[in-house]
Amino acid sequence: MAAIELEGLTKDYGEVLANDDVTFDVERGEIFGYLGPNGAGKTTTIRTLLGFISPTDGTARVLGREVTDEAELLEAKRRIGYLPDDPAFDESVTGREILELHASIKGDERSEELLELFDPPLDRTVRHYSHGNVKKLGLVTTFMHDPELAILDEPTGGLDPLMKQRFAEFLREERSRGMTVFLSSHILGEVRRLCDRVGIIRNGRLVAVEPVEALLNRSGKVVRLRAEEPIPRSKLDLEGVYDLETTLSDGGDGPDGTERPAESSVETTATNVDVDRDEVTGETAFTECTFTFTGDVNVLLERLGEYRLIDLSLEEAPLEAVFLRFYGEHDGTDDGEPVTEDGSRTESGRGTANRTGGAGDA
Ligand SMILES: Nc1ncnc2c1ncn2[C@@H]1O[C@H](COP(=O)(O)OP(=O)(O)OP(=O)(O)O)[C@@H](O)[C@H]1O
Questions:
Q1: pLDDT given at position 315
Q2: Domain check: are 209 and 227 in the same one?
Q3: Res 219: pLDDT
Q4: Atom of ligand 1 nearest to the CA of 85
Q5: What residue owns the CA closest to ligand 1's atom 3?
Q6: 308 and 177, same structural domain?
Q7: What pTM, to 2 d.p., does this model score?
Q8: Which of 40, 53, 63, 357 is most buried, most CB within 10 Å of its CB?
Q9: Spatial separation of the C-alpha atoms in residues 269 and 242, rounded to whole Å
Q10: Ligand 1 centroid to 104 CA: how many Å?
């Protein structure tokens, strides 16, 4: 039995179809990343899993229990840790009092160890907590009862780099102990570091579920090369070449004796190659280029084999680029902000429902 089972999950808010026939499983012991831009429907799925909202159609099970059956869900929630994207603790009490309350409701097997790791200022009232400290307190309340399944809505927002790293190490250790983690994110670097598999949601619809490796393979390589001699652009008229940027440089005079610019740089695609013409051969050409390549590297090397290269590097493409390829076109949501490693984005597109979940409700 999978830890999370969604079948045809649909949530229709009237104006917005926030989840549209979403079907996937999260297996026991995996870290599953739920990836999508603002307003894609991630929080809606999470809130359905926790019984805060009921599905319009379809079914959802957590730890084998139906989320629409109150008694069943209550039983499952004892074994779940939930971290909302914006934990809402009672601001008038101290962190310590919050922990005592959570301990009395769901037990406390691990707070000591978690406090050493995440270290929120326990004697301060929550009102005086920074956003990061609220998140750290939320992490303690999420894991203190040693849950089987952790459901984390954008868990690293507000954490500094050291805390993010600590959190990543913690999750990996928990996975090796058998915990299942379902986390939503729009931070691609985080997903790459943390997750075994990803589900990608766009505009309420699941567009892919795949191992993170597959996402990396699909993302291709960033190729940078510098050649001793001009290479005709047609050599890169290959399937899988994206975002081609070329430069033709020789620093010398043109054939008619006029000085030509040492460098010219244009951004173009492989099919739009009628620029940077080599003035000797008349063919479009380059001596330096960068592009993203999702095709067969051997085919590429074969194409370039006859030219003398000064430099050639192939690096893993940033997941951001892959994400933009998934979401690049306008899709009717207001998610115009590019997805970035540091998670910066606009606040537009946020629903109100995802703002009401209290911390540690599970
Ligand atoms: N209570 C609600 N009533 C109406 N529409 C809602 C409600 N809650 C969410 N929505 C809409 O449903 C869509 C999905 O929202 P959801 O919060 O699930 O997205 P998300 O992927 O979690 O976004 P974010 O990354 O910004 O948190 C959005 O268009 C949102 O505006």
A1: 85
A2: no
A3: 74
A4: 27
A5: 13
A6: no
A7: 0.73
A8: 40
A9: 6
A10: 32
Strands (E), the chain: 4-12, 17-26, 31-35, 57-62, 65-66, 80-83, 149-153, 180-185, 197-202, 205-211, 221-232, 241-249, 263-267, 285-293, 309-316
Please say if the pLDDT value at position 264 is more than 50: no
Q: How many residues does the chain have?
A: 362
Number of domains in the chain: 2
Pair 186, 312 in one domain: no
What confidence score (pLDDT) does residue 191 get? 83
> How far apart are the C-alpha atoms of 44 and 41, rounded to whole Å?
5
Burial class (CB within 10 angstroms; exposed 0-12, middle 13-18, buried 19+) of 48: buried
Question: In sequence order, which ranges of the chain are alpha helices (DSSP H)?
Answer: 42-49, 70-77, 95-106, 111-118, 131-143, 161-176, 188-194, 212-219, 297-304, 319-327
User: Containing domain of residue 213, as a range?
Assistant: 4-79+148-217+334-346
> Across residues 298-312, what is the average pLDDT?
94
- For residues 75 and 164, state if they share a domain: yes
The mean pLDDT of 301-319, rounded to a whole number, is 88
Give the model confidence (pLDDT) of 107-147 as tens digits: 999 999 999 999 999 999 999 999 999 999 999 999 999 99
Atom of ligand 1 nearest to the CA of 349: 31
Residue (of 149, 146, 139, 142) closest to 179 by Cα position? 149
Position 9 in a domain: yes
Report the first-to-last Cα separation within the chain, whole angstroms: 21
Percent of the chain with pLDDT over 90: 63
The DSSP symbol for 79 reads T
| Residue 218, CA distances (Å) to 221, 294, 325 in order | 9, 6, 10
Whether pLDDT at 101 is above 60: yes
Q: Six-digit token pair at 242?
A: 């994206």
Ligand 1 proximal residues by C-beta, below 6 Å: 13, 16, 18, 36, 38-44, 85, 186, 349-354
Tell me how far apart the alpha carbons of residues 335 and 40 are, in angstroms, rounded to a whole number.
8
Residue 227 has a CB neighbour count (10 Å cut-off) of: 18
Closest residue by Cα to atom 24, ligand 1, is 38
